[in-house]
Amino acid sequence: MIIAYLGRNVKDYRENILRYLEDLALTCPKCGSRTVFHATYERHVHIDEIVEWLTIQRVICIKCSGTHAVIPDFIRPYKHYSTGDSEMSLRDVDDGIPVERVETTASISTLRRWIAEFREKSRQAAGALRALLFRLYAGTVNESQLFGLKIFGVLEKILKKLPRIRSSSFVIGNTNIWLTNCMAGIFV
Fold it and tell me: What's the total number of domains in the chain?
């Protein structure tokens, strides 16, 4: 899958998807070769209490024939809730709010699943972002700058060292754009 900035929200996505896609140089996350448009499919996303249906573009690699969905960064991969909804909920938990008191339309069991997955993947994502920063830009983040930070603070500190990219301004979305477009093989 490829995560990209494809609009600020569902309305922007629907109105401008073709223009956003034309502006991207989509490469295969498996082999790095050029891709071409292949097919589409429908998927839904919960944004607050509204369920929206979106048409998702798929691309195919001209070299390895791998197919990949191009997902807007305001949607988390394999999740039915928006990046904004899940990030705000995860930040609340990170700030010490008990799961039962987090304001979200997601069920408590869904929120607990997000927490468990995020705890596991966010540290991997931070390591992968640091590796990308070093490999692509010869940059580093001093370990002492990360000491004592909660995971969103760690991700934000690393993302600030990377060149600014167009995104929906969510830490999770921005992280996922970097990771899926630099063949890191992970996402949060």
Answer: 1
Q: Which domain holds residue 42?
A: 2-181
Domain assignment present for residue 188? The answer is: no
| Stated pTM of the model | 0.91
d(CA 116, CA 113): 5
Predicted confidence at residue 48, as pLDDT, reads 84
Residues 171 and 155 sit within 8 Å (Cβ to Cβ): yes
| Alpha carbon separation from 32 to 63, 66, 71, 125 (Å, rounded) | 9, 11, 18, 20
In a domain, 69, yes or no: yes
H-only helix segments in the chain? 10-23, 83-94, 108-137, 143-146, 151-161, 171-181
Return the closest-CA partner of residue 154 out of 125, 117, 114, 186: 125
Q: Please, are residues 42 and 56 in contact by the beta-carbon 8 Å criterion?
A: yes
Amino acid making up residue 164: R
User: What are the strands of the beta sheet with 67-72, ordered from one edge?
Assistant: 2-4, 67-72, 50-61, 35-47
Residue 39 within a domain? yes
Could you report the per-residue pLDDT of 148-182, keeping only the tens digit for each?
999 999 999 999 999 999 999 999 999 999 998 88
